[in-house]
Model the fold of this input.
Amino acid sequence: MGNIAEEYKEKTKEKVEETPAGDFFMGIALMVLSAAVLYVAWSWPREGSLASSAALFPVLIASTLFLMAASLFATSLRHRGLPRLLHYLTPAYWRGFIASTTGRLTLLTLSTILGYMVILLKVLPFEAATILYIAGSLRIFWKAKMTRIIIISVCVTAFYVLSFRYLFRLELPGWGM
Amino acid sequence: MDAVWIALKEVCTVNVILLALAGSVLGMIWGAMPGVSTVMAMALLVGVTAKLSTHEAIMILLTIMVSSVYGGSITAVLINIPGKATAIPTAMEGYPLTLKGEGGLALGTTIMGSFIGNWIGIIAVILCVPLILAIAMKFGSWEIFLLAFWGIAICGTLVGSEKPIKGWISGWLGLLIATVGIEPIHGVARFTFDMPALIDGIGDVPVIIGLFGLAEVVKALSSPSVAIEVKQVNRIIPKLSMLKEQFGTIVRSGFIGLIIGALPAAGPNIASFLSYITAKQRAKGEEREKFGKGSYTGLMAAEVADNACIGGDLLPTITLGIPGSAAMAIILGSLNLHGIRVGPALETHHPGLIYFFYISLIIANFLMYAVALVIIKPGVKLFTMKKEILMPLIAPLCAIGAFGINQSPFDLYVMLATGLFGFALYKMRYPIAPMILGVILGPMADENLRKAIMIFQGQGATILDVLMRPVGTIMLLIIIATFIQGLRKK
Done:
């Protein structure tokens, strides 16, 4: 099975990446998270022993998660996780990232989605927010003519409103939610 | 017979039939579109199923699942882009055939393989469910806890193939998410931080939509586009003689698909790879030479196993409440929305529901076959729609699905947060499926662990007494072996 996966990866020129910086970061974050879970769970009221209390499961999960995170952290140290993480935090890396196609696309994707769900849906009705979001995103990512984009945005939004609000009787998110 | 009759009556309603048809068409189109996976298609609609009856919800989700599992093969054969990992062997054999001008026949072979694979799964489900239910009825809380725990552990090991520890971490994070809210035994508020929105816990559905829907949208839009070239489609239906030649491959691949499908979340990608490599190893002479250059045997092996997996997936899902795949976890999430707890007592509490699953699968399979034959040729343009057009249209669906269940902005933000977290996890090479399994199975594992301990304490049982329970001890050994195997991979 491994041979086939390799063969395919070779065909698609896709390589398996090691992620020591991510492992270093996640190792620390998960150790902090599991320690916090243990601390909070320990403070819950319990009748009798821990074994049958509400804290048992979170304590069990958090303590084993801590061990896994520690193992991940140790592995990342062996693969120079810290220097690589520090490299990702330098202004030079970020300048390069923003200049790259992937970096630009990632930032544009995140900002359009956050803008839609956090801002537009809060201040506008669903219809207006969705037309604006779809039109904006199509303009950014597809780069087609504006008239085509507007027609698609209006038609798709109308389809969503008709099918979900009127057919499935779902409440749609938007201003006043 | 009463239960069968109840199930048949539920199927024969206009709504159920229309939803089955809609699910098949939608599943086929979504499955065929590169970048839209089976689970994503199901996740986007899971919120909507809250407004449907239980039977309608099962029917639409199963038809979407069956059709989209096949749909992924269309783009794999025509444009060498497997919509999902399961279709990689299909792309390896199907695309060379398309280049030779045999794309239509290659597609026909995949349709036939999927249809037969599904039938193998359906027959196995019908035969095995009563057997597994009879065994499962003897399970106590301890065994159910171990089963749920093993489900997450094995899923982490199999899905996190590069580093199983990442799969386990993902599953454990899901378990932690599941502990939020008022716990059912003592009524203690866990990790609610005095926020009313957290009292009922974090809903399964916003998490599912976030991880499988929004995260996929971000992933697809943030990567550069690939140029797509579509080849001509000629004759589709394969000759009967060809099916006769493939009989051995079909039986073997169906068996592989069933067994792999029954393992929690081990699902179709392992099955199609394993079945493909087995077919390659068993092929001799000229047939072996064809592998990698366009082999119908390779295609058939991958497709039969991929689809037989659906039946395999359904087995532990409806008998034990342990989802056999991420897609089945979504079906369980939808059933949770309807207040249905799947497990050994399902047929007692909801007569006819198991038979409804069988009938739905049969209908979904016939519809998949018909829809595939009808829409492949006219739909080629639609299947190859650019992700730059498709993905911005999907993000509002995520918002609708997450918000629609409780009309709660909190659910919308949970979906957004889990979507972005899922994207970050993808970047750091963490698998997502174990997390969903953790969220779904967490409450079951938690409740049964404590019930088991309380029972043991009440009986004054020692550790030795616990180890004397044969099923539990065998499962404990399997769990230990799963972790050891995972650690050795590292």
About this structure: Chain A has two domains: 2-89, 97-167. The helical segments of chain A are 2-12, 20-42, 56-78, 81-88, 91-99, 101-123, 126-142, 146-167.
